[in-house]
Amino acid sequence: MKNIISLFCLLLTFSVMPAKGYFHKTGFDRAAFYNAMAAETVDEINTQLNIIKASSINEKEAFEGALLMKKAGLIAKAKDKLSLFKEGRKKLEASIKKDSDNTEFCFLRLIIQEHAPKALDYKSDIDHDSKLVRSNYKNLSPATQQAVIDYSKKSKALKGLVP
Q1: Fewest CB within a 10 Å sphere: which of 45, 72, 83, 122?
Q2: pTM of whole model > 0.90?
Q3: Where does residue 158 rank: exposed (0-12), middle (13-18), buried (19+ CB within 10 A)?
């Protein structure tokens, strides 16, 4: 009986614990976030949005804003696209305004700007953001550095980035 209780407690412990590297203390994993940013499915974006909304990270607004703008590019209805894009832009730009030296926020904006349609008039900071990412690359978290490397392979603004 004692062994059964011990086994039950052990199983309960493992079922309640989050997967290593996925949730950390905040419920947010940068690698998973950047995988969703690179993905082309609304489901992955929605999963990350739910994780971010439930997390306690300080950068919540910026990450949520970037995901909303990414999601806007994946949905069909024009009205919903514009609404999501504007909501995301407001959140990301507010975060950048609060912390204008945050290289990761500018990297997120760069990703969006390079893919935003011209009609949205959201391309004016590409040069600034590219320079900031290039000059502060080594100060970024390892997961963000990897995202920059991966993104630079298809980016005009970060072309030739060699870490």
Answers
A1: 83
A2: no
A3: buried
The pLDDT, as a whole number, for residue 163 is: 65
Q: What are phi and psi of 140, to 5 degrees?
A: -80, 160
Residue type, 136: N
Query: Residue 3 and residue 135: Cα distance in Å, rounded?
Result: 58
Q: What is the pLDDT of residues 100-117, one digit of tens each?
A: 999 999 999 999 999 999
- Tokens 């004016």 correspond to what residue? 124
Output the furthest CA–CA distance in the chain (Å, rounded): 69
Instruction: Give the integer Cα–Cα distance in Å for 85 and 95.
Output: 15
139 closest CA partner among 96, 107, 113: 107
100, amino acid identity: S
| Among 139, 134, 140, 142, residue whose Cα is nearest residue 158 | 134
The one-character DSSP state at 116 is: S
The residues, ordered by sequence, that sit 6+ positions from 155 with a Cβ below 8 Å of its Cβ are: 110, 114
